[in-house]
Design a protein that fits this description.
The chain is mainly α. The chain has 11 helices and 5 strands, in the order ααααααββαααββααβ. It has a 3-stranded mixed sheet. Strands 1-2 form a two-stranded antiparallel ribbon. A hairpin with a 2-residue loop joins β3 and β4. The longest helix has 23 residues. It is globular and about 55 Å long.
Length: 257
């Protein structure tokens, strides 16, 4: 009996501890990430957000983004916001894109992240960046484990903006509406990047690069049907992948859907 009571008390204390960690921060980091994107859209200085995220505590952040909905809103905004913050300062960094995405240049809570860390490690749940979404990395750091998604959500590919012209548009996601917002982003992006005629469809190369995230190349049809880009039919159009335009574009915003 005493042992059972001890376990129950420990659970209560752990729950209370998590709440106190979250409440110890004067900031809502998810709300701040949304405000950072809104500031970028107005071409305001965003240095104040960078400083707050640099000084945050990882445990506080982890406690605040305790669900996948919260993580989606926060990390998509962080990814898009830091792309804009860094490249508006120095667009030449984009000349070597491989080095740019791999560089540890995003300071969150004293931990340095790359854009690849956020995309493949946190949002894609520790996927190997070169394995098309079929192979997870074996060795994962504790910080990544603490902050990453519980489940992969392919809609992040319709929301992450890496600075290229062919990327999805930037939008200030918030944790309350993020599910609806991601579906609307998917529709907007897929309509813009899909061309169909004569039972043939050219789609974004993202479907090829991350095919495992979508459930395999055959599942592309289900995604296109889900968002009413093509009609449900026994006769499926043939799929090809359009060329990706890597021209730098730092003004690709949607203010509302």
């Amino acid at each position: 009996m005493r042992l059972i009571l001890s376990f129950l008390l420990a659970g209560v204390l752990m729950t209370a501890g998590k709440k106190s960690i979250a409440q110890a921060s004067p900031w809502s980091y998810v709300d701040l990430s949304t405000e950072m994107i809104e500031a970028h859209a107005k071409k305001e200085n965003t240095e104040r957000f960078i400083n707050i995220f640099k000084d945050c505590k990882i445990d506080q952040l982890s406690a605040q983004i305790s669900t996948d909905q919260l993580r989606l809103a926060f990390w998509i905004n962080i990814y898009n916001g830091y792309i804009l913050h860094i490249l508006r300062k120095d667009p030449k960094l984009y000349d070597d894109r491989s080095a740019f995405f791999a560089a540890k240049q995003i300071n969150i809570g004293g931990h340095m992240f790359s854009f690849a860390d956020i995309e493949h490690g946190i949002l894609r749940r520790s996927q190997h960046p070169l394995m098309l979404g079929y192979v997870k990395r074996w060795f994962v750091g504790e910080v990544e484990k603490k902050l990453r998604m519980d489940k992969r959500d392919y809609r992040v590919h319709f929301a992450l903006n890496c600075g290229a012209k062919s990327c999805p548009s930037v939008f200030p996601y918030n944790y309350i509406d993020v599910e609806t917002q991601l579906d609307k982003s998917a529709v907007q992006f897929l309509k813009r990047t899909t061309t169909c005629s004569d039972n043939k469809c050219a789609v974004t190369s993202i479907f090829s690069w991350f095919r495992g995230d979508f459930g395999g190349s055959r599942k592309v049809y289900k995604v296109l049907e889900r968002y009413k880009i093509i009609e449900k039919s026994k006769s499926k159009p043939s799929i090809s992948y359009a060329n990706y335009d890597w021209t730098l574009d730092l003004n690709n915003f949607i203010s509302d859907f």
